[in-house]
Input
Amino acid sequence: MTELNHVLDPAGDLVLILNPTSLVADDKSLSKVHTNGSDSAGSPTSNSKANTSKSQEVRIRVSSKHLTLASRVFDSMFKPGFSEGDKLRTQGHADIQLPEDNPAALLILLNLLHGRIRAVPRKINLAMLTELAILVDKYELLEITEMFLDSWLEGMENSIEEEFNDDLLSWICISYAFRKAEIFQRVTKIAQLQSKGPIKEHRLPIPESVLRTIDRVREWALASIFSYRQDVLRSYQSGKGDCRLGLKCTAMILGSLTIRLTAIGILQLPEAPYNGFCFKTLAQQLREMEILRYCESYARCEGVMSSLHDRIMLVERQLIGLQLNTLQSRK
Output
């Protein structure tokens, strides 16, 4: 008989079998502090360390009753018509393969729902919090994590970078799964400002509606700036923007615009979805443009850049991130 790595309930009727290769990079092993296997008295199982090598599966004995009370997903899994439920009724026990689940993260959640609070870490890193978010979303286990969530998040929010990267996607996943509305709005705002194209994410359980809404808002913001830039160019190209001092000033402004927009890469109007362009970078480049003019005081000529700045600011004020409550109310 294969020995167990972790026994959370000695009388448990389920053995969960997990793939150790699902461990995140920052996990040394399942015998790390606060996640070592133990029996009901708190002693590590005899084979706890030996069986956590990457060449062996991870096996955890648990109670199906605890799982069904905490998770509607597990409750459905153990009902008639499902192989797991049928085995439990006919044999009194069952082994369940969960090859995609992170063993260390699942063990934290299992300790919580079995009331083994001392075995739950108070501090974790971003990688582990992401793995927990994945499982909380998958098994609908938000409620059991609430007493530890603030402790896990403490200090981590300050490390959120103002750029679009893999960590930001992790934060979108975390804030959505754990229903942290303020963090969710903050990180989706960063995504609106900083992403450079349609977001492609398949592993993290971020709803497609969230990603597409971020994409749509980003695309609208860029289109607004490109449209205004097109209007300004056409105005001077058609002569409608002529300075009252004559062609000399108009030509100087049009030449400056042409040179600066060429340098930025938007003299030719880009096509949606504007791959390679992020709103924040484009806005900064446009604000830093130097537009030369011949006259000194004509308001229309002086207003070329100020009107552009006003348009950018108007768009920026609408890039506020997504409202979590609004999104979830539509589900």
